[in-house]
Design brief:
By secondary structure, this protein is an alpha/beta fold. It has helices at 3-16, 39-45, 173-199, 213-224, 241-256, 272-286, 302-308, 311-321, 325-336, 358-361, 375-384, 441-447, 455-460, 479-493, 497-500, 530-538, and strands at 20-21, 53-54, 73-74, 77-84, 93-104, 108-119, 125-129, 150-154, 205-211, 231-235, 464-470, 504-509, 545-548, 560-563, 568-572, 592-596. The chain has 16 helices and 16 strands.
Length: 598
Amino acid sequence: MSKPARRSFERLAAAAFALLACSALHARHPHSPPPPPDAAADCPALAARALVMRDEAAEEGGKHRRGNGLAKHLRPVISAATLRPAAGAVPEYCRVEGSVVTGDARAGFGAVRFAVNLPTAWNGRFVMLGDGGHDGAVSGSTARLGEGYATANSDMGHNGQAFPGATFAFNNRPAEIDYGWRATHVATVIAKGVIHAYYGSRAAYSYWEGCSTGGRQAAVEAQRFPDDFDGIVSGDPFMNAIEIAMEQMWSSAVFFRDADGDGAGFDHNISQADIDALRDAVLEKCDVLGSDRIRDRVVDNPLACKRAFTEQDIDALGTARGLSPGQVQAIKDVYRGPHTSRGHRWYKGKSLGSEFSWGALVVPTPANGFFPGQGGFSMELVNFLWFEHDPGVPTARRNDPSLAAGPGEYRWLDFDFDRNRPNGRTVNPGSGPWNERDGGAFMREILNGSETDLRPFLVKRKGKYLLYHGWADGLIGPEPTVDYYEGIVEDSFKGSRRKAQDHVRLFMVPGMGHCAGGVRGAAVAWDKLAPLVDWVERGKAPESIVVTQDNGTRTPEGNERLICPWPQQPAYVGPAGSGAENDPANWVAANFACRPAK
């Protein structure tokens, strides 16, 4: 046996016969990356190894819901281990693909596919890449490899080609649990074990980076598995999955519904021209407001905007455009959020300043084929992931309000906001069947990352949690993320913002849409991971972050701003007089400072 082959065998043999404690706390001091592996020999050899990892969370016997449904010993099946040559900015790396059985006999068994990317020139760190939508595929992204990070991703426990959208969850509890929380944690444990087997040492630091569904995964990890990561980045989080699905159904249903009983529907729908007029009316009141003195068609502070743009302004808009009372009320209801017939609100609605995206995401228009973007998610989630017992499959045309539900079908437009309460119990728990009065409490426990007492992660673990949300997000409303942050301050730090800011910070991004893009011209882009790494490894908390335009907002003039830790917001402090604040030449980070919100 050659020396390189012997080294490879010895390294992998040691990993194969050890039960790897992959959720252990990592070193908190500066580190030197381990010597590079013999990639040509070590990478393909991984496919032949019988690795075993111990999931420490499974040892807890269900404390804080962590041990329930977890296998103590994980035995991944490696289907491929391929050394991929350097190409452009992507360095040489070993891509390991495989699957692992999840669950136990009591909770039921599932399976998760995963991939781990192992750069030959490793920086000693690991970052788990979050998912989007209903997922169902293992990402082929090479993000962060050029910086030397080992990365990983999973399919969240189902195959999206075989079961598109949310159909994987139809009467399949193990798959729901995998999607809700288990697949992400198990894939993290597996990734850490593969890293240890390949490099011969564990990652010095482990990070999570994700947005939307990836933001929900982040929140769930923070509340369920505080030892998985040293630092977490969570953007535009879908953490309140049950309530957000209600909000999305609500804000589209007000335009779809058959109000006059003729069976056609769309009785209170509005046009793109109406949406544009609404956007302009909001900007007239809120573009320049409080500490925001720049006229750039961006609402910097929608909370302040709510005091300036009221329902009386919507009434005036309706009169000016000849809208019916039903259309005017529909617009008001989008902002109000889902509520009962008696006015009890279940969740906050769309943010002022998000109107630019309504024609794509919220309102049925000819441009979106009368199928608003948010419907692709929520109009199906309610069939398969909202109730303990699935009420039926969707109708053949979810965007057709004239099509009633047939046998074995359930129509999202029939969701009852009076009786289907997000925290409501199941009428027939366990064996079923579904009842039209069922609530969402059962699936809320599986899906939501809503808990705000995160002391195990933030205090005991001393983890770092960096949250961000686009103020103009028309898909997942941003204000509940502010509420989530404030809840963490209250419940994890007894209301002390001074103590909280050492562990958790929230950055709200004016003009940013869902995870990226947004209002044309807005500054919405930055490296999401870099500030977290500085915070975790050097103790340097982000006092502000410089943001620029991305491909979805880019203009020839450019734009550079600051975003600030909540509750501060950026204020222009550059050259004054003669409208200098409105000159894009002055829109550079040095001309902005973080100030208390007005």
